[in-house]
Amino acid sequence: MLKVAVAGASGYTGGELLRLLSLHPHVQVVAVTSEKSSGRPVAEIFQNLKGFFNLTLQPLAPQELADKADLIFTALPHGTSIGPVSEIVKTGKRVVDLSADFRLRDPSLYQEWYGIEHTDKGLLEKAVYGLPELYREQIRGAVLVANPGCYPTASILALSPLLKSRLILHERIYIDAKSAVSGAGRAPSLPYHFPEAHEGLEAYKVGTHRHIPEIEQALSDISGEGITVSFVPHLIPANRGLLCTVYAPLASSIEVDGVITVYKKFYGNEPFVRVLDPGQQPNIRNVRGANFCDIGIAIDRRNRCIIVTSAIDNLVKGAAGEAIQNMNIMMGFEETTGLMQPGVFP
What we know:
With about 350 residues, the chain is α/β, with parallel strands linked by helices. It has 2 domains: about 1-125, Rossmann fold (3-Layer(aba) Sandwich); about 150-315, Dihydrodipicolinate Reductase, domain 2 (2-Layer Sandwich), CATH 3.30.360. It is built from 12 helices and 13 strands. The protein has helices spanning about 10-20, 40-45, 60-70, 80-90, 105-115, 120-125, 130-140, 150-165, 195, 210-225, 255-265, 315-330, and strands at about 1-5, 25-35, 70-75, 95, 130, 145, 175-180, 200-205, 230-235, 240-250, 275, 295-300, 305-310. The strands form 2 sheets. A 7-stranded mixed beta sheet has the order 8-9-7-10-13-12-11.
């Protein structure tokens, strides 16, 4: 059994990690941490996990985690992972970090978008971006995997086949994204208070969201040239789910069937990407609780524009599920282990 620990286990992502890890046949969770909930049993924080874990949340002590576990998931707030992750990696243990602290290769971009100077640039150079569909071979040998954000996962998966196949022009790529309230985390905040969010829909951080450079970094990798996008996120009154609608000008006169063929070939061996048939569009309800990304494709012929939609559960394929997928690759397990279950319906 692989011994794992979860640092920052009391948030939505931490709880989802524990739920999914409880299903994994090769994993034993040996330690969980939380600063705010230290001393409380896991089942008190997450009553859905009652009977699955006999663990008590402890303050974060990186060396102690490294002594107990072979691999550590760090689900800490952005800007707080660098120190603990650095300490753990120095012990020789492997880490999947779910914060943004090791996603951007250029430390100047990290400082520009997150307002924090990166204090371990050497480790940053060794980190591997954890989107398996694009970086699987690098993930296999990684000591530190930087788990992608939820918006980047859905956006990058939607656009990668188009860029790889040169089917679109790069000058005008627009991403309209909508995420459920759980994407903002578990800490109470006025915009996510029920009366504030329920029956509402609004754009936020228009053109300034911190996930923009992360999206552009991966799309530039797949394209082989610098890619910029216009990205607008929205908050929707739902607990889970994320839907991206991507618009880009076509570079050829290809029909929908041809584009779907390109996508099915690109993702043909990917267990968690489902390319829908012509006329079908993804819905967040169909991926709730699952590690799938569903992709739908249409063409607006009048405007010579391709429209790609992608749907994920922001807490699973957008966070915890993808982290476990990365762990499976790193440790040599079958990639789908503990993750191959359908979404919850209705």
